[in-house]
Amino acid sequence: MVAAPPNSPRRIARLRYRPVTRRDLDECLSLLPPWLGLSAQTRQALPQLWQHLVDEPSVISAVIEDLALPADRIQAWGVSLILPKQLVRELRLDDEPNAFITRRLYEALIDGSFRPMTDREIGTENAAGELTMLILHFSARQFGAENPYGHSLVAVANDTYRTFHYGYRLRAIYYETNATDDYAAAGSGFMRRRLVDEDSLSGLPLELRPAYFGLTHEQAWNQMPGPPARNNFEHQPPLFCFSASQRRLLWFALFDESDDALMPILEVSVHGLKKLWRGIYERIEDRMPSFFGDAAGGDDGKRGPEKRRQVMAYVRQRLEELRPWAPG
């Protein structure tokens, strides 16, 4: 753990969020919160597990980094998981589950008793409005109601939450954290829920005591729009239904639109990247011929950048276009 960034008025934080990458894993794993109660064996297996989880479509993971720091820039890490209906029932997430849900899920992923959902499986449940998410953990180097730098991290975390979680047609979203996190979880719109073994945890310090929050579609629609968790349930079907490879390109382009940055992430050549963009433009023009206006027509090297600008402006507002969708 690095020393906390100073709160000197001469220092200006430069916080930004982005998807987690393999090069982040050492720093991220050092941020695992102690309330998870992971065994030494599980901790030892996590680096190898996360090498695979980075590319799983059901794993939603973001880091918040401070670009003003010379090293150890990652200041916060969050992880959510899209769960199949059968596992939601087994864990009793809709009722009163046992504590340490995240720990048990990590153990199941390590021993292979749980297989993450595929893009197609997610798309089917998403289109049916049956999707359930669980926020496994969120941790920051500085956190707390009395910490100004921590306040800045929470503010950026709310923006991060929107970009990484909105656009799904959710049935429910649940959140396991610790008992000191009430102020942030409740402020984000989550409702406190009971763990079946909650009474047996009362002897643990608050920072080590698991707490359980959640919000269902029905509960969200009984709230006024505003809190991030509640707004998560606003949804429209995607217009363009991009392919998985097209969605992946658009997703990473949200954070860095340069071809030099995108090609190694997507493992494509210059030609392959151009082909992906061309396929996106053709799909849009096929379904909405008026979308590009004066930039419509062939990509002659001048229209292409303008088309890309219009597409990125659109998907930033309509995040459902970046989510798997497989009706019927």
Describe the structure.
This protein has 328 residues and is of the alpha+beta class. It folds into 2 domains: 15-231, 3-Layer(aba) Sandwich (Aminopeptidase), CATH 3.40.630; 244-322, no CATH class. 40% of the residues lie in helices and 16% in strands. The chain is built from 13 helices and 7 strands. The protein has helices spanning 25-29, 40-53, 85-91, 101-111, 119-127, 148-165, 182-187, 217-221, 228-231, 244-253, 259-266, 270-287, 303-317, and strands at residues 15-19, 59-66, 74-83, 131-140, 170-178, 191-193, 210-216. The chain has a 7-stranded mixed sheet. Helix 2 (40-53) packs across helix 4. It is globular. The protein starts with 14 loop residues before the first strand and ends in an 11-residue tail after the last helix.
Based on the model shown, name its key terms.
alpha+beta; single chain; 7 strands; seven-stranded mixed β-sheet; 13 helices; 2 domains; 328 residues; Aminopeptidase
Q: Tell how many strands the DSSP assignment holds.
A: 7
N→C terminal distance: 48 Å
Mean of residue pLDDT? 92
Q: Looking across the biggest beta sheet, what order are the strands in?
A: 1-2-3-4-5-7-6
Task: Tell me the CATH architecture of the largest domain.
Answer: 3-Layer(aba) Sandwich
CATH class bucket of the largest domain:
Alpha Beta
Count up the domains: 2
Kindly report the CATH topology of the largest domain.
Aminopeptidase
CATH superfamily of the largest domain: Gcn5-related N-acetyltransferase (GNAT)
Question: For the CA atoms, what is the radius of gyration?
Answer: 21 Å
Any chance you could write out the topology, listing elements then pairs?
Blueprint: E1 15-19, H1 25-29, H2 40-53, E2 59-66, E3 74-83, H3 85-91, H4 101-111, H5 119-127, E4 131-140, H6 148-165, E5 170-178, H7 182-187, E6 191-193, E7 210-216, H8 217-221, H9 228-231, H10 244-253, H11 259-266, H12 270-287, H13 303-317
